[in-house]
Amino acid sequence: MPAPAPAPSKDRKVLGRLSLPERNFVAEALRTETVGGVLLLLAAIAALIWANSGLKESYESVRDFHLGPASLGLDLSIGHWAADGLLAVFFFVAGIELKRELVAGDLKDPRAAVLPVVAALCGMAVPALVYTLVSATGGGSLAGWAVPTATDIAFALAVLAVIGTSLPSALRAFLLTLAVVDDLFAILIIAVFFTDDLNFAALGGAVVSLAVFWLLLRKGIRGWYVYVPLALVIWGLMYNSGIHATIAGVAMGLMLRCTRREGEEHSPGERIEHLVRPLSAGLAVPLFALFSAGVAVSGGAIGEVFTRPETLGVVLGLVVGKAVGIFGGTWLTARFTRAELSEELAWPDVFAVSSLAGIGFTVSLLIGELAFEGDEVLTDEVKAAVLTGSLIAAVLAGTLLKIRNAKYRKLWEAEELDEDLDGIPDVYEQDNPEYHLRMADIYERKAAEHRRLAEVTAGASEENDGPA
Asked: Which residues, 6 or more positions from 429, have their beta carbon under 8 angstroms from its beta carbon?
């Protein structure tokens, strides 16, 4: 996600240093996502242990336990509540992120938006193509073409946290923006390709309720007690309309204002995202993983992942398709826009991040459930393929990033260096005359201190060398 490019095209940089406000926003967002990613990993591990232990029956009974008002069409299993209800919170945050990127972030500038949009599109098209070719060649079902198209930013950042890489902020921002654009197209895929028979009465009610939601926001009405009940009504109507209920979440997120007005420290969208993101990353997504990742795993089951065309297509789509698609889209964009890669990075760095985007856990699991709904055996096998492909992508990307970790650490330390202790990294003040005056004063004081210490040391040495 490069900063806005200078006018002369020959000087444009791919993955150059972010602006200071964008850097600070990305750092804040990624801290929450990283914690959520660690919780996501723990939830997935807990689900696998629970579903493959002597307590397997209890896992299935809890996941399949139904609750909710049947009269409202909401008598759902715990697993469905996690996929249709809790993930609506996740997509609500994704909607706010997308809105912010479009009106205040790097996607606002068409020149800066080209790279992540093209990279994300290629990173979805190539995995879909890989799955289709593998499945068609092996005589498998083509219904799962969309499964390997998704990227799980929380899981990817959890991998970064585990391997301890000091990834430069430009690469982290590129990964984050890829995931935002990826989420947008995943939402469109769910809405277009996985919508059941429409209930137009419920859909009309959802549209009217969304209009009321937008009108209240426009009028500046405040109070969670107004919006939370209305959001639940919108979600319930959207679920009963036949359109996947998570669409309600992203629709409401896109309606929030993400630009600041005079006197505002944060826009309403930023404030609400700050409040809801921990709920999404710390509760909604881990609970979804807990009730979706619990598939039977055995030596035979893992072997079948690489022999069945549908599951092999998912694995290759995530591991090969994502890396080739994103890297290829980035390289082609740079090539045809005559942009140059930032001198601080190399193309292997872009390939490593592209490989990391092959972790498609959360949304891939959701699309897998939708694609093979009614075929419980194939659904579980595809889930196992998602877990396997995500694990391979994580190990591959982690290895590639670890090789360059010493270089990344130097870049990160340079980005964080703040010798004048004014709270602003020095690299952002190099063109500020006041900064150079402060640094000159700091260096003069340090030099004076060194001279003083040298004089004290010399005096002490003369005393020791003098007559007894």
From this structure: 420, 422, 435
328 and 121 Cβ atoms separated by less than 8 Å: no
What CA–CA distance (Å, rounded) separates 216 from 223? Answer: 10
User: Can you give the residue ranges of every domain in the chain?
Assistant: 9-194+244-416, 426-465
Angstrom distance (rounded) from CA 172 to CA 411: 13
- For 192, residues 6+ apart whose C-beta sits below 8 A from its C-beta are none
Alpha helix positions (H), 104-168: 110-137, 153-163
The answer to whether 168 and 412 have CB atoms below 8 angstroms apart is yes
Instruction: Quick: pLDDT tens for 431-454.
Output: 555 555 555 666 566 667 777 777
Class of 9-194+244-416 in CATH:
mainly alpha
Name every residue whose Cβ is closer than 8 Å to that of residue 226 and which is 6 or more positions away in sequence: 216
- Tell me what pLDDT residue 4 has: 45
Q: Which residues contact 321 (CB under 8 A, 6 or more apart)?
A: 123, 126, 127, 128, 129, 130, 131, 148, 358
Q: What is the pLDDT of residues 84-140, one digit of tens each?
A: 899 899 889 988 988 888 887 767 777 777 888 899 999 999 999 999 999 999 999
pTM (global) more than 0.85: no
Give the β-pairing of 66-67 and 13-14: unpaired
Radius of gyration of the chain (CA): 26
DSSP 8-class letter at 226: H
